[in-house]
Amino acid sequence: MELRLHDTLSREKRSFVPLDAKNVRMYVCGPTVYDFAHIGNARPVIVFDVLFRLLRHLYGEAHVKYVRNITDVDDKINDRAARDFPGLPLNEAIRKVTEQTGKQFHADVDALGALRPSVEPRATEHIGEMREIIERLVKGGFAYVAEDHVLFSPQAMNVAKSDLPRYGALSNRSLDEMVAGARVDVAPYKKGNTDFVLWKPSKPGEPSWPSPAGIKAEGRPGWHIECSAMAWKHLGEHFDIHGGGIDLVFPHHENEVAQTCCAFHRERMANYWMHNGFLQVESEKMSKSLGNFITIHELLADWPGEVLRLNMLKTHYRSPIDWTMKGLEESAKTLDDWYRVAADVEPGRPAASVVEPLLDDLNTPLAIAALHGLRGGDVGALAGSLRLLGFLSDSAGQWESRKQQASGVDTKEVERLIAERTAARARKDFKESDRIRDQLAAMGVAIKDSKDGTTWEIAR
Length: 460
Ligand code: AMP
Ligand code: ZN
Description:
The chain has 17 helices and 14 strands. The chain is α/β, with parallel strands linked by helices. The protein folds into three domains: 4-279, 3-Layer(aba) Sandwich (Rossmann fold); 325-401, Four Helix Bundle (Hemerythrin (Met), subunit A) (Up-down Bundle); 409-458. The longest helix is centred in the N-terminal third of the chain and has 22 residues, at 90-111. It has helices at 42-59, 75-84, 90-111, 127-139, 154-159, 175-181, 223-235, 249-264, 296-302, 305-313, 325-342, 352-359, 364-374, 379-388, 396-407, 411-426, 430-442; strands at residues 4-7, 12-15, 24-28, 64-68, 143-146, 149-152, 196-201, 219-221, 239-245, 270-276, 279-281, 321-323, 445-450, 453-458. Helix 10 crosses helix 11 (325-342). The radius of gyration is 26 Å and the shape is elongated. Strand 1 (4-7) and strand 2 form a beta hairpin. Residues 29, 31-32, 40-41, 43-44, 244-245, 247-248, 276, 278-279, 286 line the site of adenosine monophosphate.
């Protein structure tokens, strides 16, 4: 069976045909490093990690190149640096913020079982490429200089007589409607109200670089140009897959397409545009003001990363996801079971029943249902399939100790107390067995007796 992927531009599932099967190329927009990443940010990380693993499975590990950038120049970073390190010169403070946040991001996504991308370029290391693209756009008549800014004109793109894509095609919007609906209080240096910034002057003390297009004052790049530059440097003018969250379709990805296609006279930037749906928490939009804003870091204090990973993949990547405590508890139980059954067996080839749904636009919920189906049968195939999806990175013993670290409960001690309690019950010493039950409850452990014995879980 062939791989089929849903493409946002053509709005349909299409067979995936790489430009070069020896060098399959994917770009995914990465984090802006100014704060802990939240669980919504984990969604593209996990989803595109599954796609990266699947592509490696299909084309060979050496033949897939995955680029995920780090945005380390941004107003939010500058604000955070000034707030957190008021005594330092701004540039030094910025370096501290981006270094700390970058490290934290890596620790978080490693714990989620995500492979590191082949390249993780930083925006500030690609200013030269940004300048070159901007120069090309100005020369081509797609961008202009005004008051030390360089602005891109979507209207210039859409009147150009060539086989460029139409501005608005990716996000399915009409430029005329955007022009009509744009805000009136547009910056005075803009010729058109939909023009967007490629380059802008830096304020004193802010990071700055020599400007392109003959501008004397130093400046800094706009956000959209960063991804065009990094994708170009590492993947070329035209590559296979570009991904990110659905919120990035407009304006970020629409503008990336415009910049790259106009700079290199291309009909396309990426052949497949893939976007994950949004995550909300307990049926509410996640936001700082609602107080339901959860970081990956906080969740990792309570749950092993694989629980978060499984919980994310139970929903198809294009659907909205409702992140709930109940879902996490169920995911933890499922992983307990998989570790018990499959962690210590020799992994076999991933089962066709798991791979096939993945080939159908990453249908992870169906793949997970198929994993449940393998549980009572071919456990070698179960183990191999779980590894393809990035699970079972440890032995069963290590899983237990990781759970213990996350929950703060000493599982060996729990097992010992349960055995003692079973012995007390056997000799009908119910006073002692009740005492042990209370002791476990005080440790945050709930137990359940059945005819098959006593099971336990962490009471939340
Ligand atoms: P940002 O740092 O806000 O640019 O986001 C980094 C990545 O996380 C982008 O691909 C976003 O689309 C994605 N993202 C942000 N919030 C959510 C959310 N609530 N659900 C799913 N993806 C999100
Ligand atoms: Zn981007």
